[in-house]
Amino acid sequence: MTRTKTVVLSAVVAAAAVFASAALARPAAPAATTVVKPVPVAVSGTEFKFTVSRKVVPLNKPIWFRFKNVGDEVHDFSFTRPKAKTPFLTPGKSATLKVTFKKKGTYQAICTVGEHFLRGMKVNFVVK
Q1: Other CB atoms within 10 Å distance of the CB of residue 8
Q2: How far apart are CA 117 and CA 35, in angstroms?
Q3: Can you give the pTM of this predicted structure?
Q4: What is the dihedral sign for C-alpha 104, 110, 112, 115?
Q5: Which of 2, 38, 60, 79 could form a disulfide with 64 if both were Cys (CB 3.0 to 4.6 A apart)?
Q6: CATH number for the domain including 79?
Q7: pLDDT tens for each residue of 68-101
């Protein structure tokens, strides 16, 4: 066999081996995705207090604060750390505030309307 035929034959055999191994190879398993379910917290606000379904929430998980204004005045639900706030809500309206706390500690939520905070419209959450 000539040198040229040997080189060509070697190339054909190598190519066939690559195609055969590709055909026999199993597809890689898809990367596992972890779905993190949000932790719901019901919050109602009235003159001049908040009522919440829980005061202890987990670290590094999405918390969905579902705020409903059950009062007679406009209210909101706001954190300064991390900075997050619902819109001002008229009586009977609701909004969801999504927050993920990155550090353990105590976080305070307040109503930022007028002097509502000073009149007692505040609540503390402990993040563990």
Answers
A1: 11
A2: 36
A3: 0.73
A4: negative
A5: 38
A6: 2.60.40.420
A7: 999 999 999 999 999 999 999 999 999 999 999 9
